[in-house]
Amino acid sequence: MQQLTCKLQKVYNWLQANLYPGMTVRNFGEIEGIAVGTEFDSRAALAASGIHKPTQAGISGSSTAGADSVVVSGGYEDDEDYGDYIIYGGQVSHDPNTKRQIADAELARGNLALVVSYNRGLPVRVTRGLGSRKHTYRYDGLYQVERWWADRGKSGYKIYCFALRKIDDQPISTPAGELPLPSSNLEPNLVKAYTTRTVRATEASELVKKYHDHICQTCSTRLDRLGGAYAETAYLRPIGRPHNGPDTPDNIVCLCPNCHVLFDSWAFTIEDDGTLAGVLEGTVNEARGHALNKDHLAYHRRLFLQAQG
Q1: Which pairing describes strands 252-255 and 137-152: parallel, antiparallel, or unpaired?
Q2: What is the spatial distance between Cα 141 and Cα 123, in angstroms, rounded to a whole number?
Q3: What pLDDT, on the 0 to 100 scale, is given for residue 46?
Q4: CATH no. for residue 64?
Q5: Do 134 and 225 belong together in one domain?
Q6: Residue 113 belongs to a domain
Q7: Confidence at residue 226, expressed as pLDDT on a 0 to 100 scale
Q8: How far apart are alpha carbons 135 and 173 in whole angstroms?
Q9: What phi and psi, each to the nearest 5 degrees, are found at residue 61?
């Protein structure tokens, strides 16, 4: 897989260099010759390796191509690092001394680059600053932007949050088999090196699909195929940190793939009376036995409104 990634990257680099000369060549995925766990004694050394080229910015990327890497140092108050799962507080204006945010974040530059990576499913390299050894950084592998949302940070200003999930089971640990996390972690000390995942029980999702006969609740599309109809489900209040929504039918909507993408990208939401707000019009389709929880609807609407402005 790594060899294939390197070959595809070389093709991408050639196309970019020949079709779009003068543009920055951005490497998505692994950097050939740099193994997970490699340490660097400065940001300059990290930049020279190609893992993370900016020597100061925490996000490497552009608003058109996407983000190829981030540095997580534990220095910002809204970051949460759980090892294989990171809630990254995005790019903000902050006081250089206190690290506290001093203005609302904008959906531009690095933040928009991470949204583009989410939209395109691009891998993001993650490097951690090792707090126990000042100015030392360790490359910890590829992560994917699993979800993004806007919220209010601890300083009261708007932030953009990005849930980064480790893509594979390659260890991100020390030789002892454990990973020391930054002091900002809500569950400090050590975590095991294996990858953990949120287990989504399928019973609730399958039940909701059955209630609606695999018909999208927002656009009424039913995708029939050999072996049975296809539909997807989305959570009103996302499960997993920090939202901690329940995996229950009253928190789940049955959607077609197109509407699912729009729903998770904050393009539309659902009012308490079932009216659709945003890029879709109309009302949500109901089915006997399936009612949506108004508290969960309100939670999604709050995040929807935060994302709009």
Answers
A1: unpaired
A2: 10
A3: 95
A4: 2.30.280.10
A5: no
A6: yes
A7: 85
A8: 19
A9: 165, 180
What is the C-alpha to C-alpha distance for residues 216 and 270, in angstroms, rounded to an integer? 14
- Examine residue 213 and state whether it is found in any structural domain, yes or no: yes
From 235, 246, 254, select the one nearest 300 (Cα to Cα). 235
Residues 159 and 244 in one domain: no
Structural domain harbouring 58 = 24-192
Residues 122 and 180 in one domain: yes
Residue 151 host element (H or E): strand 137-152
Residue 76 lies in a domain: yes
- Please tell me the predicted confidence (pLDDT) of residue 24: 60
255 shares a domain with 181: no
For the chain, residues with pLDDT lower than 50 are 1-6, 16-17, 19-22, 174-179, 182-201
Comparing CA positions, the residue from 308, 309, 306 lying closest to residue 150 is 306
Number of other CB atoms surrounding residue 220 within 10 Å: 11
Cα dihedral sign, 200-202-207-210 = positive
Q: Is residue 231 part of a domain?
A: yes
64: which 2 tokens?
A: 């058109």
For the four alpha carbons of 114, 116, 121 and 125, in that order, the dihedral sign comes to negative
Q: How high is the pLDDT of residue 194?
A: 36
What are the tokens at 135?
Answer: 């100015």
Kind of pairing between the strands at 137-152 and 39-40:
antiparallel
Residues 170 and 206 in one domain: no
- Predicted confidence at residue 186, as pLDDT, reads 45
The answer to whether 240 and 163 are in contact (CB under 8 A) is yes
Map residue 44 onto helix, strand or coil.
helix
Domain identity same for 181 and 147: yes
Structurally, the chain folds into a number of domains equal to 2
Task: Check whether residue 43 and residue 179 sit in a common domain.
Answer: yes
pTM, rounded to two decimals: 0.74
Distances (CA, A) of 154 to 78, 96, 103, 157, 224: 7, 16, 12, 8, 47
